[in-house]
Specification:
It is a single chain. By secondary structure, the chain is an alpha+beta fold. The chain has 2 domains: 140 residues, 60s Ribosomal Protein L30, Chain: A; 275 residues, no CATH class. Helix content is 51%, strand content 10%. It has a 5-stranded mixed β-sheet with strand order 5-2-6-7-8. It has a two-stranded antiparallel ribbon with strand order 1-9. Helix 10 runs antiparallel to helix 11 and helix 10 packs antiparallel against helix 16.
Length: 450
Amino acid sequence: MTLSVFDFFRIGIGPSSSHTVGPMRAAGLFVEALEREGLLGSVARLKVELFGSLGATGRGHGSGPAVLAGLNGAEPESVDPAALPRLAEDVGQRHRLQLRNGAEIRFHPDRDLVFHGRRSLPEHPNGLRFSARDSSDEPVTTRDYYSVGGGFLRGEGLADDGPALPRPFINAQELLILCEQRGEPISDVMLANEAILRPETETRAGLLRIRDVMLDCVARGLASEGELPGPLRVPRRAPGLHRRLMNGAGHDPLAAMDWLGAYAIAVNEENAAGGRVVTAPTNGAAGIVPAVLHYYLYHTPAPSEDGVIRYLLTAGAIGMIIKAGASISGAEAGCQGEVGSACAMAAAGLTEVTGGSPAQVENAAEIALEHHLGMTCDPVGGLVQIPCIERNAVGSVKAVNAQRLALCGNGSHVVSLDKAVRTMRDTGRDMKSKYKETSRGGLAVNVTEC
């Protein structure tokens, strides 16, 4: 499968790329398949089943409304976040759902939207099964999809190898060899590969749009007061942090660290509220890459538009390496796969745009990933709030710390990024399922819900 930087930076909505963005896309693809195969006209009823982590924490992560919106024709990049609860309420009251082609079918959420919290489909913990039936309640077709993190999907009819890349790499060693042979930074390798998929001008414009959505998300988060949705009644902290920093805390020599925390918390509070965010590489870890991007723009001496583009390209390269060698899915690898991956991506991007060599970039990514190994995914109440929001703030600081450590050296180090990725893969496989986004272990069972 040919991956693009835009596969790792998708514009979508909160609170979870695997639980909202992926299921919304899967629902839309299922209806597309029905249309393509000429079956849509015979469908009178649909049943959607969510398995594994989707079943265990899907209610708290908004998977139900996301599926309904996808069936209705919504797409994560353009859907109005406020429309999802309205659609779910309407379907719940009328027991009717309008599909993307305008046809209405019977749909009783209590019966036709099933959360299997302790059952999984064979290929991945985040499984969805869509079943269509006709007016006589006879089966029309059934399809399974897997939401494998970051909005990525696997399932029938989705395999597409894409065009061959001029600078292919599957791991960090191959990437470093390419850079050395061609005398190019990592961002140039990525830019050459992206040129196979679209003109360079479109790649640059698309990455600047990603930047703008990230900046807007931080701005909204810093300005939005109140509580996050759900029974935990978590107060938003980003506006208070912002006021404190604007009122003079900037004289503190460690103020940049506080700014990083404020930026990351702003994004993840927006995500927890179901707002517009950029998966980076997932929603649960969406605050780190934007926070470190803000650090580059406002706390380094010579930021530039080209630097923003190269930051995102380099970060995307590290995301590709981690996805190929391990996982970016919390349901598969725990939070090391989400926050750990995002931290490595941000550290790498920042290292390149502050003058680091490809070897130093790889070193920064390894430092960042190594110090997240073993991190569990244990959201309290199945909500992307505790401990997820603070983990992004701390991960942002770790990314800058990794960059600074890497720039102090020459890129030579004992543990390679590829070894850290393999370790993350093995650790994720050994980790019990209760620590992987099911809310059945860790903080999720040791914090009393209020």
